[in-house]
Every structure is written in structure tokens, then in C-alpha cells.
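[Discussion] Sanity-checking designs against the backbone

I'm trying to build intuition for which residues belong where. Below is a C-alpha cell string of 146 positions. I'd appreciate it if someone posts a full sequence so I can compare it with mine line by line.
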């Protein structure tokens, strides 16, 4: 079965938890484990927070768009903004790289997304800003290493 949803939120931190919860609620129909659902929530939180903090730098006039599509046991998530984008995406994907060290940012957002999802791509949004694509297969439960 294929299903989809689209969510557009104002780019403010108060909406990050709503976005995470909405995507998680959509995914429940795919029968994920609690750990898998937590992985998706964490990755969505990171992507949305990056858009708000870095894409719009705290401006309150932007939006974050989230498209979620489920095909069988696989969920595909796209998070896009129309903010400033990232000049050097490969560098930004390196652990501990941050453009805001004075704000005590860890620089681990993309690393977290990559570790919690099965696939992650980061590219410029054709209409400006950034496009993050992630997918998670809820088929066979995956065991975490502690």
C-alpha cells in the first residue's frame, strides 16, 4: 500500500515537536518497532531543527515542508526549506562541523540522521535552501548495538 502526507510548518522551534509527532503518527500504520519509530522521530527532529536554526537563522518568516510517503514497509521522508542553503554540503556532513559554535551546537545533526535512518541524502533545494531525503525500512526489526 502506498500512502503519503505533506506538512508545511512555520520555521519556528515550537513547531519542531509537532513535525516529529505528525511524522511518527503517519508511520504507525507501517507497524514499526518502538525503536524504529524513535529513530524516525529523532531524524525528523534533527532535519527540522537544522532548517529552523541554520536555514533561516532564527527568522520567523520561513517555512519547512515535510513530505512523507510510505510504500510497503519503507517510509521516505523529505524535509525542505527555502533558506540560505549550505555552500559546502560534504563539509557540513562531517561530524562536529557547525556554523554556530558560539551557540553550543554539536555539529552532529547529519551524523545523527545518517545513523538513525537507512538512507540519507542532502542536496540543494532547486528553489533555494536545502532538501534532506531520508528513508527507513520497517520490515525486519533492526537490532541496535549498544
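Best answer:
Here's mine. Compare freely.
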Amino acid at each position: 500500500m502506498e500512502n503519503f502526507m505533506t506538512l508545511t510548518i512555520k520555521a519556528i522551534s515550537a513547531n519542531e515537536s509537532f513535525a516529529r509527532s505528525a511524522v511518527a503518527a503517519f508511520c504507525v500504520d507501517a507497524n514499526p518497532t518502538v525503536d524504529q519509530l524513535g529513530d524516525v522521530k529523532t531524524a525528523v527532529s534533527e532535519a527540522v531543527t537544522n532548517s529552523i536554526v541554520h536555514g533561516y537563522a532564527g527568522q520567523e518568516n520561513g517555512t519547512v515542508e515535510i513530505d512523507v510517503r510510505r510504500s510497503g514497509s519503507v517510509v521516505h521522508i523529505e524535509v525542505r526549506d527555502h533558506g540560505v542553503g549550505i555552500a559546502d554540503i560534504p563539509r557540513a556532513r562531517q561530524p562536529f562541523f557547525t556554523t554556530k559554535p558560539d551557540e553550543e551546537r554539536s555539529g552532529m545533526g547529519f551524523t545523527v540522521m545518517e545513523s538513525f535512518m537507512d538512507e540519507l541524502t542532502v542536496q540543494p533545494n532547486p528553489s533555494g535552501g536545502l532538501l534532506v531525503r531520508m528513508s527507513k525500512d520497517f520490515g525486519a526489526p533492526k537490532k541496535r548495538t549498544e
